[in-house]
Design a protein that fits this description.
Number of strands: 6
CATH topology: Nuclear Transport Factor 2, Chain: A
Number of helices: 3
CATH class: Alpha Beta
Structural class: alpha+beta
Oligomer: single chain
Largest sheet: 6 strands, mixed
Strand content: over 45%
Order of helices and strands: HHEEHEEEE
Number of domains: 1
Helix content: 25-40%
Strand order of the largest sheet: 2-1-6-5-4-3
């Protein structure tokens, strides 16, 4: 694996994570390809899912971001010839509710750099 590619991917993921922590759809969307898909057992959505994410959580928190906390851990990162898959374990705190999510992010590199093309994920309770 090319060390520079790994650093570039981690930088992209940091922007993605910051956007999630800030509940900022615009920042999140800057890390995704415009035709990307978000897939779970509950539903499949396109990039409008990030706008829904922002609206849903801001309403659930009554606009109080102090009730929001989200932590990311990159569990694995595999890169090969302009393709990458990243497993990320996420821990959410929404007011008094705490739950986890495992994400598998698929990335592609083009002449402009790395972008996320899809996310497959599952939520689960944390005990």
């Amino acid at each position: 694996m090319n060390v520079q590619e790994i650093e570039d991917i981690k930088k992209l993921l940091e922007t993605y994570f910051e956007g999630n922590k800030e509940i900022n759809a615009k920042k999140i969307l800057s890390t995704w390809h415009k035709d990307a898909m978000i897939i779970s057992t509950e539903k499949t959505v396109g990039m409008e899912g990030w706008v829904e994410f922002e609206e849903y959580y801001m309403k659930k928190l009554d606009g109080d971001k102090t009730k929001w906390d989200i932590d990311f851990e990159i569990v694995s990162l595999d890169v090969f010839k302009g393709c990458a898959i990243v497993r990320v374990d996420v821990k959410y705190k929404v007011d008094q509710e705490v739950f986890g999510e495992t994400q598998f992010l698929n990335l592609l590199k083009d002449d402009k750099g790395w972008l996320i093309y899809s996310k497959i994920f599952k939520f689960y309770p944390l005990t």
